[in-house]
Amino acid sequence: MAEGPLQRATCARCKRPACVCYCSSFPAKLLRTERTHVLVLQHKHETHRRAAISSVPVLTQTLANVRLVTVDDDCDCSPGVSDDLDECLYNGGDATIDAAFVLFPDDRAQPLESTCDKAKSIGESKRVLLIVIDGTWREAKKIARRNRQVWEQAARSWEARGASFHYVCLGNEERIDGARARRSIYGDLRREPMEGCMSTLEAVASALYVLEPREIRQILHDSLLRAFKAKVSIQERYQEQGRVAKLKQYGGISKAKAVEMKRLERQQQQLQVKVEP
Protein backbone atom coordinates (compact mmCIF):
# COMPACT_ATOMS: atom_id res chain seq x y z
CA MET A 1 0.00 0.00 0.00
CA ALA A 2 1.44 3.35 -1.07
CA GLU A 3 2.21 5.82 1.68
CA GLY A 4 0.82 9.34 1.52
CA PRO A 5 3.04 12.43 1.39
CA LEU A 6 4.91 13.31 4.56
CA GLN A 7 3.33 16.10 6.57
CA ARG A 8 5.40 18.95 7.94
CA ALA A 9 5.96 18.88 11.69
CA THR A 10 3.61 21.34 13.39
CA CYS A 11 4.18 23.10 16.70
CA ALA A 12 1.60 22.09 19.30
CA ARG A 13 1.36 25.60 20.75
CA CYS A 14 1.36 28.07 17.85
CA LYS A 15 0.01 25.51 15.34
CA ARG A 16 2.57 26.63 12.78
CA PRO A 17 5.08 24.49 10.86
CA ALA A 18 8.31 24.07 12.81
CA CYS A 19 10.19 26.18 10.26
CA VAL A 20 8.08 29.25 11.16
CA CYS A 21 7.42 28.55 14.86
CA TYR A 22 7.65 31.71 16.96
CA CYS A 23 6.84 30.29 20.41
CA SER A 24 10.19 31.40 21.86
CA SER A 25 8.85 34.97 21.77
CA PHE A 26 5.89 34.21 24.06
CA PRO A 27 5.99 34.89 27.81
CA ALA A 28 6.59 31.81 29.98
CA LYS A 29 2.90 31.79 30.90
CA LEU A 30 -0.19 33.63 29.69
CA LEU A 31 -0.40 37.18 30.99
CA ARG A 32 -3.55 38.13 32.85
CA THR A 33 -5.02 41.60 32.61
CA GLU A 34 -6.39 43.16 35.79
CA ARG A 35 -9.33 45.13 34.39
CA THR A 36 -9.89 44.21 30.77
CA HIS A 37 -11.59 41.25 29.15
CA VAL A 38 -10.99 41.15 25.37
CA LEU A 39 -13.68 39.89 22.99
CA VAL A 40 -12.48 39.39 19.39
CA LEU A 41 -15.07 39.17 16.60
CA GLN A 42 -13.02 37.51 13.86
CA HIS A 43 -14.22 37.10 10.28
CA LYS A 44 -13.91 33.45 9.30
CA HIS A 45 -11.57 34.24 6.39
CA GLU A 46 -8.89 35.22 8.93
CA THR A 47 -8.91 31.68 10.36
CA HIS A 48 -8.51 30.01 6.97
CA ARG A 49 -7.14 32.16 4.16
CA ARG A 50 -4.93 34.40 6.29
CA ALA A 51 -3.99 32.17 9.23
CA ALA A 52 -0.27 32.39 8.44
CA ILE A 53 -0.16 36.15 8.99
CA SER A 54 -3.09 36.78 11.36
CA SER A 55 -2.21 38.65 14.56
CA VAL A 56 -5.01 37.12 16.65
CA PRO A 57 -3.26 33.78 17.37
CA VAL A 58 -0.42 35.79 18.91
CA LEU A 59 -2.97 37.67 21.01
CA THR A 60 -4.61 34.50 22.34
CA GLN A 61 -1.22 32.89 23.07
CA THR A 62 -0.03 35.92 25.05
CA LEU A 63 -3.09 37.04 27.02
CA ALA A 64 -5.30 34.90 29.25
CA ASN A 65 -8.41 37.10 29.22
CA VAL A 66 -9.38 36.74 25.55
CA ARG A 67 -12.47 35.23 23.96
CA LEU A 68 -12.59 34.59 20.22
CA VAL A 69 -15.86 34.46 18.26
CA THR A 70 -15.75 33.49 14.58
CA VAL A 71 -18.11 35.50 12.36
CA ASP A 72 -19.57 33.99 9.18
CA ASP A 73 -19.90 35.70 5.79
CA ASP A 74 -23.29 37.18 6.73
CA CYS A 75 -21.50 38.98 9.62
CA ASP A 76 -24.42 38.38 11.98
CA CYS A 77 -23.50 38.87 15.64
CA SER A 78 -27.06 38.99 16.97
CA PRO A 79 -28.22 37.39 20.21
CA GLY A 80 -28.47 33.61 19.88
CA VAL A 81 -25.68 33.31 17.30
CA SER A 82 -22.92 32.58 19.84
CA ASP A 83 -22.98 31.50 23.47
CA ASP A 84 -19.89 33.61 24.14
CA LEU A 85 -21.56 36.70 22.67
CA ASP A 86 -24.73 36.10 24.67
CA GLU A 87 -22.74 35.73 27.89
CA CYS A 88 -20.43 38.71 27.37
CA LEU A 89 -22.52 41.22 25.46
CA TYR A 90 -26.26 40.61 25.48
CA ASN A 91 -28.93 40.54 28.18
CA GLY A 92 -27.02 43.25 30.01
CA GLY A 93 -23.72 41.47 29.58
CA ASP A 94 -21.57 39.98 32.32
CA ALA A 95 -22.80 41.56 35.56
CA THR A 96 -19.23 41.75 36.88
CA ILE A 97 -18.18 44.07 34.03
CA ASP A 98 -18.88 47.78 34.40
CA ALA A 99 -18.22 49.17 30.91
CA ALA A 100 -18.02 47.97 27.32
CA PHE A 101 -15.90 49.54 24.56
CA VAL A 102 -16.48 48.72 20.88
CA LEU A 103 -13.14 49.57 19.29
CA PHE A 104 -13.88 50.59 15.70
CA PRO A 105 -13.25 53.94 13.95
CA ASP A 106 -16.71 54.83 12.66
CA ASP A 107 -18.69 58.08 12.91
CA ARG A 108 -19.80 57.34 16.50
CA ALA A 109 -16.36 56.57 17.89
CA GLN A 110 -14.62 58.85 20.38
CA PRO A 111 -10.96 58.60 21.44
CA LEU A 112 -10.58 55.88 24.05
CA GLU A 113 -8.42 57.86 26.45
CA SER A 114 -10.72 60.90 26.56
CA THR A 115 -13.77 58.61 26.90
CA CYS A 116 -12.23 56.98 29.97
CA ASP A 117 -11.40 60.40 31.43
CA LYS A 118 -14.99 61.61 30.99
CA ALA A 119 -16.85 58.47 32.08
CA LYS A 120 -17.32 58.69 35.83
CA SER A 121 -18.46 55.05 35.96
CA ILE A 122 -15.01 53.86 34.84
CA GLY A 123 -12.81 54.01 37.91
CA GLU A 124 -9.52 52.33 38.66
CA SER A 125 -11.28 49.32 40.20
CA LYS A 126 -13.82 48.83 37.39
CA ARG A 127 -13.74 45.90 34.97
CA VAL A 128 -14.24 46.54 31.26
CA LEU A 129 -15.05 44.58 28.09
CA LEU A 130 -13.00 45.53 25.03
CA ILE A 131 -14.68 44.42 21.78
CA VAL A 132 -12.46 44.36 18.69
CA ILE A 133 -13.21 43.36 15.09
CA ASP A 134 -10.68 41.30 13.14
CA GLY A 135 -10.70 41.07 9.35
CA THR A 136 -9.92 43.13 6.28
CA TRP A 137 -11.11 46.74 6.35
CA ARG A 138 -14.08 45.76 4.16
CA GLU A 139 -14.99 42.80 6.38
CA ALA A 140 -14.65 44.82 9.58
CA LYS A 141 -16.90 47.57 8.23
CA LYS A 142 -19.50 45.00 7.23
CA ILE A 143 -19.48 43.46 10.71
CA ALA A 144 -19.80 46.88 12.36
CA ARG A 145 -22.62 48.05 10.10
CA ARG A 146 -24.47 44.74 10.08
CA ASN A 147 -24.71 44.75 13.89
CA ARG A 148 -25.20 48.42 14.55
CA GLN A 149 -28.83 48.07 15.61
CA VAL A 150 -28.35 45.07 17.92
CA TRP A 151 -25.38 46.78 19.59
CA GLU A 152 -27.49 49.87 20.22
CA GLN A 153 -30.05 47.60 21.87
CA ALA A 154 -27.28 46.01 23.90
CA ALA A 155 -26.09 49.47 24.97
CA ARG A 156 -29.53 50.27 26.37
CA SER A 157 -29.53 46.97 28.25
CA TRP A 158 -26.11 47.76 29.76
CA GLU A 159 -27.18 51.25 30.76
CA ALA A 160 -30.36 49.88 32.36
CA ARG A 161 -28.24 47.97 34.89
CA GLY A 162 -25.99 50.96 35.58
CA ALA A 163 -23.11 50.00 33.28
CA SER A 164 -21.84 52.03 30.33
CA PHE A 165 -21.41 51.22 26.64
CA HIS A 166 -19.06 53.20 24.38
CA TYR A 167 -17.90 53.32 20.76
CA VAL A 168 -14.23 54.24 20.71
CA CYS A 169 -11.19 54.57 18.45
CA LEU A 170 -7.47 55.07 18.93
CA GLY A 171 -6.87 57.66 16.24
CA ASN A 172 -3.77 58.37 14.17
CA GLU A 173 -2.20 60.44 16.96
CA GLU A 174 -2.26 57.67 19.61
CA ARG A 175 1.00 57.84 21.59
CA ILE A 176 2.76 55.39 23.85
CA ASP A 177 5.15 57.05 26.30
CA GLY A 178 5.19 60.19 24.16
CA ALA A 179 6.11 58.42 20.93
CA ARG A 180 3.81 58.79 17.94
CA ALA A 181 2.40 55.49 16.69
CA ARG A 182 4.52 54.11 13.87
CA ARG A 183 3.64 52.14 10.76
CA SER A 184 2.01 48.78 11.45
CA ILE A 185 4.38 45.97 12.37
CA TYR A 186 3.02 44.10 9.37
CA GLY A 187 5.09 46.31 7.06
CA ASP A 188 4.91 44.88 3.54
CA LEU A 189 3.77 41.45 4.72
CA ARG A 190 0.17 42.66 4.81
CA ARG A 191 -0.69 46.00 3.27
CA GLU A 192 -2.95 48.19 5.36
CA PRO A 193 -5.74 50.05 3.49
CA MET A 194 -4.72 53.52 4.66
CA GLU A 195 -2.18 55.39 6.76
CA GLY A 196 -2.66 54.96 10.48
CA CYS A 197 -4.19 51.47 10.26
CA MET A 198 -2.77 48.72 12.43
CA SER A 199 -3.26 45.04 13.15
CA THR A 200 -5.85 43.81 15.64
CA LEU A 201 -3.09 42.89 18.08
CA GLU A 202 -1.50 46.34 17.89
CA ALA A 203 -4.89 47.97 18.48
CA VAL A 204 -5.49 45.80 21.55
CA ALA A 205 -1.98 46.54 22.86
CA SER A 206 -2.59 50.30 22.56
CA ALA A 207 -6.02 50.01 24.19
CA LEU A 208 -4.64 48.01 27.11
CA TYR A 209 -2.02 50.69 27.65
CA VAL A 210 -4.91 53.07 28.31
CA LEU A 211 -7.21 50.71 30.20
CA GLU A 212 -4.85 48.75 32.43
CA PRO A 213 -3.18 49.95 35.67
CA ARG A 214 0.11 51.76 35.29
CA GLU A 215 2.15 49.01 36.95
CA ILE A 216 1.30 46.35 34.33
CA ARG A 217 0.24 48.20 31.17
CA GLN A 218 3.77 48.49 29.76
CA ILE A 219 4.45 44.77 30.30
CA LEU A 220 1.23 43.80 28.52
CA HIS A 221 1.84 46.21 25.65
CA ASP A 222 5.47 45.25 25.09
CA SER A 223 4.88 41.50 25.42
CA LEU A 224 2.20 41.57 22.73
CA LEU A 225 4.29 43.61 20.30
CA ARG A 226 7.44 41.55 20.92
CA ALA A 227 5.67 38.28 20.06
CA PHE A 228 3.97 39.75 16.99
CA LYS A 229 7.21 41.24 15.69
CA ALA A 230 8.80 37.80 16.00
CA LYS A 231 5.99 36.16 14.01
CA VAL A 232 6.17 38.77 11.25
CA SER A 233 9.97 38.61 11.08
CA ILE A 234 10.02 34.81 10.84
CA GLN A 235 7.26 34.78 8.21
CA GLU A 236 9.05 37.43 6.14
CA ARG A 237 12.30 35.47 6.30
CA TYR A 238 10.53 32.26 5.25
CA GLN A 239 8.82 33.98 2.32
CA GLU A 240 12.10 35.53 1.20
CA GLN A 241 13.76 32.11 1.26
CA GLY A 242 10.95 30.81 -0.92
CA ARG A 243 11.30 33.72 -3.32
CA VAL A 244 15.05 33.15 -3.67
CA ALA A 245 14.50 29.42 -4.24
CA LYS A 246 12.01 30.14 -7.01
CA LEU A 247 14.37 32.60 -8.66
CA LYS A 248 17.06 29.93 -8.61
CA GLN A 249 14.65 27.38 -10.04
CA TYR A 250 13.74 29.64 -12.96
CA GLY A 251 17.20 30.93 -13.76
CA GLY A 252 17.13 34.14 -11.76
CA ILE A 253 13.72 35.37 -12.93
CA SER A 254 10.25 35.05 -11.49
CA LYS A 255 7.99 32.11 -12.32
CA ALA A 256 5.57 34.44 -14.13
CA LYS A 257 8.39 35.84 -16.24
CA ALA A 258 9.69 32.32 -17.00
CA VAL A 259 6.22 31.19 -18.10
CA GLU A 260 5.87 34.25 -20.33
CA MET A 261 9.26 33.66 -21.92
CA LYS A 262 8.35 30.02 -22.57
CA ARG A 263 5.10 31.09 -24.22
CA LEU A 264 6.91 33.55 -26.48
CA GLU A 265 9.47 30.89 -27.33
CA ARG A 266 6.70 28.49 -28.43
CA GLN A 267 5.09 31.20 -30.53
CA GLN A 268 8.42 31.90 -32.22
CA GLN A 269 8.89 28.19 -32.97
CA GLN A 270 5.40 27.96 -34.46
CA LEU A 271 6.10 30.96 -36.70
CA GLN A 272 9.31 29.38 -37.91
CA VAL A 273 7.48 26.18 -38.81
CA LYS A 274 4.90 28.12 -40.84
CA VAL A 275 7.47 30.03 -42.94
CA GLU A 276 9.54 26.96 -43.82
CA PRO A 277 9.12 25.95 -47.54
From TrEMBL:
Presence of keyword Zinc: no
E.C. number: 2.5.1.25
GO biological process, one term: tRNA processing
InterPro entries: DTW, DTWD2/TAPT
Top-tier EC class: transferase
Chain ranges of the DTW domain: 7-240
A GO molecular-function descriptor: tRNA-uridine aminocarboxypropyltransferase activity
Keywords, alphabetical: S-adenosyl-L-methionine, Transferase, tRNA processing
Catalysed reactions listed for this entry: a uridine in tRNA + S-adenosyl-L-methionine = a 3-[(3S)-3-amino-3-carboxypropyl]uridine in tRNA + S-methyl-5'-thioadenosine + H(+)
Protein family according to the UniProt entry: Belongs to the TDD superfamily. DTWD2 family.
Name of the protein described by the UniProt record: tRNA-uridine aminocarboxypropyltransferase
Organism in which the protein naturally occurs: Hyaloperonospora arabidopsidis (strain Emoy2)
Phylogenetic lineage: Eukaryota, Sar, Stramenopiles, Oomycota, Peronosporomycetes
